[in-house]
Structures are given as C-alpha cells and as structure tokens.
Design brief:
Elements lengths: L24 H5 L15 E7 L5 E7 L1 H5 L5 E3 L31 E2 L5 E7 L2 H8 L3 E6 L6 H4 L13 E9 L2 H6 L3 E9 L2 E2 L7 E7 L4 E6 L4 H12 L6 E4 L15 H13 L3 E4 L2 H7 L2 E2 L2 E9 L5 E11 L10 H8 L10 E8 L14 H19 L3 H8 L8 E7 L3 E5 L4 H11 L2 H13 L3 E13 L5 E7 L5 E5 L8 H13 L6 E4 L17 H28 L6 E4 L2 E4 L2 E7 H7 L15 E7 L5 E13 L6 E11 L6 H21 L29 E6 L16 H17 L12 H10 L11
Helix pairs in contact: 6-7, 9-10, 10-11, 10-18, 14-15, 15-16, 17-18
Length: 786
C-alpha cells in the first residue's frame, strides 16, 4: 500500500511520473548488450533443427545413419530417441477445446512447414547445418488445407482427428433478435485481418548447460516468461524444480512471440543432459517465419443494426480464427478477445458473437502485441464509418453519440473467459479522449480541405481508430525490495523485459517509495534462482501488476526502515520521513540516519533493536490484482493515396492515450510510438503468405515487408490520465495500445480517401487499394484516370 503522504504523480522532484531517461540505454548504445548469440561457454556445441518441408505428410521413415557416421557429428535426435514426453500445453483451453497439442518433435506425422523432425549437434552451427542435410526423411505427402473456412467444410483434409474445429466460443448480451427485428437500418460486411509475424530484431535462441555434479540444468533463453519455462521443463524432463534454473540475458525484442513454450526448449535441454556439454541453438530468420508463432489471422462476418441518428442497437458477429496446425499456450486468447472486445468504447445494448477456431496446415498461432484487440478495433471502427456513410453523418459524431459515458463506469460487459475473467471496464472518459484527439489533429480543418484536394486530383483522407484494451492481466506478479548495508536498493521482479525499460520504471517505483534517486536502485530480472515466483511480461502488465508488487514490497521495507531508524534516532516512527537516501526527523533535517547505516544496524552479528524480530531490510510481495485494467485511446491518421499506383502515404498520425497514472511519460511515449510503427506494418505492409498446398511464400525480409523510416510518419502522442481504482497507483497497461488503434485509423483514412471504394481487409497494399479503386470506378483497371 502506498503511504498516504505521497505527492501527486508529476511532481518534478518525485521519480514516479518523471520523464527520466532509461537506465538501460547507455550500456546498450555502447554495444554492451549481452544476447544469447553473443554468449560462449567452454566446450559448447551447436544444434540445427531438421524441419519438415511439407505442410502435411506422414513420416514413413527417418534414416540418420549417414549423419551419424560423419565424424563431425556429436548427436542426432529424433522422436524415437526421446522418452515419452507430454506435448506442449494450452493453458487457456476450455472443457470443449479439442486436444490438438503439439508434440516436442514429430514422430508419425507433420502438419506444417517448419515442424521439427530431428535435431543435429556438432561443433558449430555451420557444421550442424551441413550434417542436417544428411538426415534422410521419407514422407508420404497428404492433402493440405490453409483456408480456415475450407478447413471447416465437409470433406476437408483432417489434420488431427475427426474434425478441424478446435472450439466454438459463444457470447450473448441483451436481446440481439429484438434489436435487429425493429432496426431502421442494418449493414453487413466481411472484415479480414491477415496473418503476420512478430519479427523482433533478435530471433529466438537458447543455451542449455547440464551440471553433472549437481544434477541440475541451466537454460539461458530469450524468453519473456522464465518461471513458466522452468516449470514446463521440470515437468517434461522429469526433474525437480530445484534442479532447473532459467536465466534471461538481454532480449532484442519479443512483442509476445517469446511467451510461447516451444519444442526447442525441451530438445536442446535434453541434448545437453545427454551430451554433458552446453548446447546452443539460435533461430535463423527463415526459421523465425516458419517455426515461431504468428498472430492475427481472423475473419469477421459482422452485422450492425442502428437507427436514423446512428445510435447502435445491436451487433452480430460470426468470427473464424485460423490458429494453424496446433494449439499453443494461449491459443484461445485471439478468438476470445477478437469478439469480446469488439464493441470497444461503445454502448452496444445487444451483442451475439460466435467465434470458431480452425486448425489448418500453417505455422501455429499465439498472441503477440495487441492480440485480438487489433481485429476487434479494425472491425468495429470500419463498421462505425460505414454507419456514418450510410446516414451521411460525420464519423466523429457517430462515435461521440455511441460512446459509453463516464458516469457508467465501472461497467461489467457480461463477457469473460477462463484466464482473463469477466470484462469490467474500470475507468475512463472516452468522449473526452476522442474530443481531444479531434482537436490536436485539426480534424475539422483537414475535412474541410479534403474535397478541394479531390478536385485537384489528390486523394487524401482522415480516419479515426478508437479502442479499449484489456491490460494488467494476472494472475499475479512478485516483487522483492532489499536495502543493502551499502545503502543501495535491490529490486527483484518476476517481470522479464525485452526492451520496454523495466529496469527504469521499476526503479522509479521503488525509489519513489524509499526516497532515493533511481541511480541508487538496482533492478534484477530474468533469473529463476533469484526470483522464486514470476509470471513474466505480456498483456501490458508490468507497470500495473509487477509495479504494484514492487510498490507494496518497498512500502513494507520502508516501514521497517522507519522502525529501525526510530530506535537509532530515539524518535517516534510517525515523526520520521525518507528523503535523499536517509531517514530524518520531520522538521529537524540535522537529525537523520543514512539508509546504509540503518541497514547495517540489522545485519547478523548485531543485537536487533527492540521490536525488530528479523535481520535485514527486505520484503517480498506477490500481488494478485482483483481485476484487469482497461486502457483506451483514439488514433487519428491522415493519408494520401496515389491514384496511379494505389500506394498509401501516411501524412500524420495523432494519438491520445489513457494508461492511467503514468510512471514515466518518456518511456510510455516510446511504447505508443513503437506500437504505432507495428500497426503501420499491419495496416499497409506485413502478411505471411501461403500457397494452397501450405508452402510459405515469403519467409524472408526481401518479400515480407516491414515499416521503415520512410513509411512511419511523425507520431504525436498525448496522454490523458484517468487513474484505475484497481491499484493504489492508478496505473493501467501501456505497451500495446499503439498497435491496436493504428490499423483501424489508417484503414478508415484510406477508405475516406478512396470513397466509395470498399475497404474491408488488411494489409492495404498498393495492389489491394488499386483494385478497390478500380472496382469503385475511381480508376481504370488498366491504368490511371477517373
């Protein structure tokens, strides 16, 4: 609990709320980062994975004899060499979910290009890759299916058993039939969001080291969830938890694709145990495209009922998610959030949504940045604009009319799932957020210039993307705060960063509570031997859950500091304050004790002060949030579309974001801007493409396009602050909203520019945009012109 005398966030003398530069950056900018690929160990070997070239095939035989005869070979591993190991786990499965889980290595059948069928170990990666080509696998190709609708049709190739339908999620709020029966207007549309990849600058990697003396394993991994990996390995390798240590060095980006437990964690660890040597595996970029989980691919068949004023009366949605060949750890998050968060900030009295999950012969899918929210916002925000077009109303006014008023919050939406619990919007002011976004983007001015530009032959447009995002997910996070005899503060957190700035923001929380500068605080993350309990980093949860745990632990350490100092200063604890690295008597700054002196007073070897019953100044908190927090925002994008090519140029992008109380506005700005860049990729460029027989068509950076400095405009970000009541600091999540609002805003801006062309799918590539313009008669199909 925070102390009652804390000053408001934003006080320039208070670290909490200050735009401090990141503690991590000087070392990283000087090239002092330490990543898995940089690490070397005595006697270390390298592994290469033999992967299926087929999307769907039976394995007839695997001949490893030639590979094993090669004198450079240290090991070859196939399914036949492993003991019986349980497949990868899906932790959000419902009782009705089909158990289509992935084995750690294929034994009888492969179901996507890139599935592991063997692993080869040699002295270095290049040699291992050469030897991997000597492993001869005989396949019997089977018919593949990559389209999720076709996969659910009668007669489609069955990928696992009986059916390709993983599960059907159904949700209903209010009287949807009545809403549609009496509605003056109903529109319907199919909205499609493509499959794309996380593509962090650092691919996945790991080093497993077996200690024969202690019979224990250390796994160095570029994961977001070290404690989860530890628990999984203990179960799959038959080791006690005390025999496994997972350590995470610097991680060069993750965006969610590193929360999944992958086959390689088990395979590389097993090989290290067998060989009694450290074994390293680093994913190459082709492997990243075919073997690391994808996200997003979803279809929404939406109907929306509304009256003459544009008031929404009801929504019906039939959603299909293409989850790829297997369930993954959080497979149902995408289909759940894609429909559960569909209504966003709008007061929709009736909703009926069906969300089907289909298995296909594509790389498995799992959450990454903005999971489900991207599709929900794109679908609903395009529908809002369609209502406005139908009634000849301004899209902003339709939104303002339908937004949930502040006085209705908190608001239970009547929907929940097995992991996230019930959706209860906690706090916000959606209308003020939209109004401010319209103001800073000069919305009315741009709209007034639009028709003049069109008369001049220029196609410009402006679009709005509003969203509400579920953040701060539990079930818990841990924080430990220790005051060392040196006076330095050590913070241990179960959150595990991949570039977000945890070492700074968590230091700000502890420093704020203990009255020190952040330079006096050392944050330790990513080591399961030091951090007993931890969930990890995903779902915009570190500040809202991990930060609260650190705050609570620091508060408990603070109370002990005050009690010890009270004895030393012969004062009452209520008369003391912490400031500038010392405890002092209020009103008598000359009567004080430095933190180092106080911590030394309760070290072993000294007699403890009266009332103090344990040595050291240390406290641990495991914080279980009572509910999730709900961030929100409004994006407004301005674009110009080239009539001759269909190329979309982003002119400006504005964001008003509410993540509750802001720990560090400088870092939050970066998180929002980085999210927008990812959203630009999703809106305009990125798509993992497959042929009809399941072959990836663009698993490289020549053909898979990413945003660059030329495609991302200047992004103006402004923060609203409506604190959440869920935690004492009022903090909500902030890491994903940029990725959620941007695609919807950009798509609406493009639709505005090329009206009346149909815009219902991303990415809005030049080919897709030009085809839409041609279909609408804006250009000739064979060339430019009206």
């Amino acid at each position: 609990m925070s102390s009652p005398d804390h000053r408001a966030a934003g006080d320039p003398q208070r670290p909490f709320g200050a735009p401090l530069k990141r503690k991590e950056d000087p070392r990283l900018l000087r090239g002092g980062g330490s990543y898995i690929a940089d690490m070397k160990m005595h006697g270390m070997l390298a592994a290469a994975v033999v992967r299926s070239p087929h999307a769907h095939a039976r394995i007839i035989s695997i001949d490893t004899s030639e590979a094993e005869r090669d004198p450079r070979t240290r090991a070859v591993l196939t399914a036949g060499d492993l003991p019986e190991i349980e497949p990868l786990v899906c932790i959000d499965a419902e009782e009705t979910t089909k158990p289509f889980n992935q084995p750690v290595i294929a034994g009888d059948k492969v179901r996507y290009v890139g599935e592991p069928v063997a692993v080869v170990v040699a002295s270095d990666r290049a040699v291992a890759e050469d030897i991997a080509e000597l492993v001869l696998v005989e396949y019997e190709p089977l018919d593949a299916v990559v389209d999720p609708e076709r996969a659910l049709d009668d007669g489609a190739p069955i990928i696992h058993s009986e059916t390709n339908l993983v599960d059907t999620l159904e949700y209903e709020i209010g009287d949807s039939e009545g809403a549609f029966d009496g509605a003056p207007h109903v529109i319907s549309e199919r909205f499609q969001t493509q499959r794309y990849a996380g593509t962090p600058i650092e691919t996945r990697g790991m080093i497993a080291e077996w200690d024969e003396r202690t019979q224990s394993m250390t796994l160095w991994s570029s994961t977001q969830v070290p404690n989860t990996v530890k628990g999984f390995l203990a179960e799959r390798l038959g080791l006690p938890g005390t025999a496994i240590r997972v350590r995470v060095p610097d991680v060069g980006g993750a965006f969610g694709v590193k929360i999944q437990i992958y086959p390689e964690e088990v395979l590389i660890s097993f090989l290290a145990m067998r060989l009694r040597r450290p074994v390293k595996w680093i994913e190459d970029r082709w492997e990243h495209f075919v073997a690391t989980t994808h996200g997003r691919e979803q279809i929404h068949d939406l109907e929306i009922a509304f009256d003459d004023d544009g008031q929404i009366l009801g929504v019906r949605d039939d959603c299909i998610t293409n989850t790829g060949a297997y369930l993954q750890s959080l497979t149902l998050v995408e289909p759940f959030i894609g429909v559960a968060m569909l209504t966003g900030p709008y007061a929709v009295p009736a909703l009926r949504a069906t969300s089907r999950v289909a298995i296909t012969n594509k790389t498995p899918m799992n959450p990454f940045r903005g999971v489900g929210h991207v599709q929900a916002a794109f679908t609903m925000e395009r529908a809002i604009d369609m209502i406005a077009r139908k009634l000849d109303l301004d899209p902003a006014q339709v939104r303002l009319l339908n937004m949930i008023p502040t006085e209705s919050l908190p608001l239970a939406r009547g929907i929940g799932n097995v992991l996230a619990g019930e959706i209860v919007y906690d706090s916000g002011d959606y209308r003020r957020c939209l109004s401010r976004a319209l103001e800073i983007s000069r919305y009315e001015e741009f709209a007034a210039n639009r028709e003049r530009a069109r008369e001049e032959g220029r196609l410009i447009g402006i679009g709005i993307g509003a969203f509400v995002e579920e953040t701060g997910l539990g079930p818990y996070e841990s924080g430990t705060v220790r005051v060392e005899p040196s006076g330095r503060i050590v913070v241990l957190s179960g959150a595990s960063p991949s570039g977000q700035g945890h070492l700074t923001t968590l230091a700000q929380v502890a420093a704020d509570e203990l009255g020190v500068s952040i330079e006096q605080v050392d944050v330790v993350v990513g080591d399961t031997d030091l951090i007993r309990w931890g969930v990890g980093t995903y779902a915009s949860r570190t500040a809202a859950v991990g930060g609260v745990a650190v705050r609570n632990a620091a508060s408990a350490a603070r109370e002990k500091l005050l009690r010890v100092a009270a004895d030393m200063l012969e004062a009452d604890a209520s008369d003391l304050e912490l400031a500038e690295g010392a405890v002092r008597v209020v009103g008598s700054p000359g009567s004080s004790a430095p933190l180092a002196e106080i911590a030394s007073r309760v070290m072993p070897g000294e007699e403890l002060p009266v009332g103090i019953d344990e040595y050291g100044i240390e406290a641990t908190d495991v914080y279980h949030p009572s509910s999730n927090t709900f961030s929100y925002g409004v994006h407004i994008s301005k674009v110009e579309v080239d009539r001759d090519t269909g190329m979309v140029k982003l002119l400006e992008h504005h964001v008003v974001n509410d993540s509750g109380t802001v720990v560090n506005p400088l870092i939050l700005d970066g998180q929002v801007q980085g999210g927008v860049a990812l959203g630009v990729g999703g809106a305009l460029l990125e798509e993992v493409r497959y042929s009809e027989d399941g072959q990836p068509e663009n698993p490289n950076f020549m053909d898979y396009l990413l945003p660059t400095v030329e495609t991302v405009p200047i992004i103006e970000v402004e923060h609203m602050v409506v604190p959440t009541p869920i935690n004492d600091d009022g903090v909500k999540g902030g890491g994903e909203g940029g990725a959620v609002g941007a695609p919807a805003a950009i798509a609406n801006a493009v639709a505005d520019a090329i009206h009346p062309a149909r815009v219902n799918a991303t990415p809005l590539t030049p080919v897709r945009v030009f085809a839409a313009m041609a279909e609408a008669g804006l250009v000739s199909p064979l060339g430019s012109g009206r």
